[in-house]
């Protein structure tokens, strides 16, 4: 598909801006003790990718829309590099337990969120 | 240029995000074509290389350009935030699950190697800064 770059770029703009404003919102609401924004974006993004990638099996969704959502929006909404940087910063601030919980907890809960997304999609489809 | 930060900030992030997603997509395609493997090599290499750049750039920007928050929005929030991805990383792990050792290597190896590359990036930035400040 020639127009792939257009759809993924459009999705990425929406994804990155959603992540930015979510981070700002969390910063204002809960302060900067933890990066709640990045954590919440990664976990909710995991749930959504589990849900949508399963729905694709059941419902016909055009390739452009798939790329827009999965590669563009969700790819940009979630971020791996900030998660690693935050883990490293917690360690540098000598908050060792926080670093371990955040570092191990994010992929672990992310995995659960994906499975929840997959199960939700199957339930949704069977309704 | 656009002075109003309400418009300026989203434009800056968007520009970084467009570059980030296109790099992820086309580098990923190239890697998949050149390395015929069942291992999700594309997202693996993209994420750990992104961590390296994250360590390098965040250190350089904090030390050298502390008064330019827009560079952080462009390069960190926009570009690197979009270039690396967490959702596909988790999806690759959750969906495959037919080769446990490979999936565990990917799942646990990504954050560990990511942290390692981040530290290398930070060290390299510190060395670069100390060479520049001496000359």
Automatic annotation (TrEMBL), chain A:
Membrane topology per the entry is: Multi-pass membrane protein
- What switches its activity on or off, per the activity regulation note? Na(+) is not transported, but it plays an essential structural role and its presence is essential for fluoride channel function.
Identify the keywords attached in UniProt to this record, alphabetized.
Answer: Cell inner membrane, Cell membrane, Ion channel, Ion transport, Membrane, Metal-binding, Sodium, Transmembrane, Transmembrane helix, Transport
Report the transmembrane regions from the record: 6-27, 39-61, 67-87, 99-124
Where, per UniProt, does this protein localize? Cell inner membrane; Cell membrane
Q: Which superkingdom heads the taxonomic lineage of this protein's source?
A: Bacteria
Pfam families for the chain: CRCB
Query: Which residues of this UniProt protein bind Na(+)?
Result: 75, 78
* One Gene Ontology term of the molecular function aspect: metal ion binding
Q: Which reaction does it catalyse?
A: fluoride(in) = fluoride(out)
Query: Keyword Cell membrane: yes or no?
Result: yes
In terms of one coarse class, where is the protein primarily found? membrane
* Gene Ontology terms: biological process: cellular detoxification of fluoride
Any one of the GO CC terms: plasma membrane
Q: What family does this belong to? A: Belongs to the fluoride channel Fluc/FEX (TC 1.A.43) family.
| Role played | Fluoride-specific ion channel. Important for reducing fluoride concentration in the cell, thus reducing its toxicity.
Check the record and name the PANTHER family matching this protein: FLUORIDE EXPORT PROTEIN 1-RELATED
NCBIfam families reported in the protein's UniProt record: crcB (TIGR00494)
Q: What is this protein called?
A: Fluoride-specific ion channel FluC
Originating species = Cyanobacterium aponinum (strain PCC 10605)
- Cite the source lineage: Bacteria, Bacillati, Cyanobacteriota, Cyanophyceae, Oscillatoriophycideae
From TrEMBL, chain B:
Keyword field contains Ion transport: yes
Give an example GO cellular component term for this record. plasma membrane
Q: Which GO terms describe its molecular function?
A: fluoride channel activity; metal ion binding
| UniProt note on regulation of activity | Na(+) is not transported, but it plays an essential structural role and its presence is essential for fluoride channel function.
Where primarily located? membrane
GO biological process terms, alphabetically, are: cellular detoxification of fluoride
Topologically, how does it sit relative to the membrane?
Answer: Multi-pass membrane protein
TM helices/strands, residue ranges: 7-27, 39-62, 71-89, 104-125
UniProt keywords (A-Z) are: Cell inner membrane, Cell membrane, Ion channel, Ion transport, Membrane, Metal-binding, Sodium, Transmembrane, Transmembrane helix, Transport
Catalysis performed (reactions): fluoride(in) = fluoride(out)
Highest rank taxon of the organism: Bacteria
Stretch forming the signal peptide: none
Binding-site residues, Na(+): 81, 84
Give compartment(s). Cell inner membrane; Cell membrane
Could you say which protein family the record assigns here? Answer: Belongs to the fluoride channel Fluc/FEX (TC 1.A.43) family.
What function does the entry list? Fluoride-specific ion channel. Important for reducing fluoride concentration in the cell, thus reducing its toxicity.
What's the protein name? Fluoride-specific ion channel FluC
Task: Print the organism lineage.
Answer: Bacteria, Bacillati, Cyanobacteriota, Cyanophyceae, Oscillatoriophycideae
Query: What is the name of the gene encoding this protein?
Result: fluC
């Amino acid at each position: 598909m020639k127009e792939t770059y257009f759809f993924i770029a459009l999705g990425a703009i929406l994804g990155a801006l959603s992540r930015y404003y979510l981070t700002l919102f969390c910063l204002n609401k809960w302060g900067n003790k933890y990066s709640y924004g990045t954590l919440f974006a990664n976990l909710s993004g995991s749930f959504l990718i589990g849900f949508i990638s399963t729905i694709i099996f059941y419902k016909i969704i055009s390739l452009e829309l798939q790329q827009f959502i999965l590669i563009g929006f969700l790819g940009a909404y979630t971020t791996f590099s900030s998660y690693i940087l935050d883990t490293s910063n917690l360690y540098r601030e000598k908050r060792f337990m926080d670093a371990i919980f955040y570092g191990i907890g994010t992929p672990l809960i992310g995995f659960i969120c994906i499975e929840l997304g997959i199960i939700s999609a199957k339930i949704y489809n069977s309704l | 240029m656009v002075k109003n930060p309400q418009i300026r900030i989203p434009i800056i992030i968007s520009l970084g995000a467009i570059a980030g997603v296109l790099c992820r997509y086309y580098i990923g395609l190239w890697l998949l074509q050149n390395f015929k493997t069942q291992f999700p090599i594309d997202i693996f290499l993209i994420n750990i290389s992104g961590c390296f750049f994250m360590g390098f750039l965040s250190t350089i920007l904090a030390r050298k350009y502390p008064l330019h928050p827009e560079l952080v929005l462009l390069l960190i929030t926009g570009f690197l935030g979009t270039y690396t991805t967490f959702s596909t990383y988790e999806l690759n792990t959750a969906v495959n699950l037919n080769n446990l050792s490979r999936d565990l290597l990917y799942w646990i190896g990504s954050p560990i190697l990511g942290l390692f590359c981040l530290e290398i990036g930070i060290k390299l930035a510190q060395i670069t800064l100390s060479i520049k400040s001496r000359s």
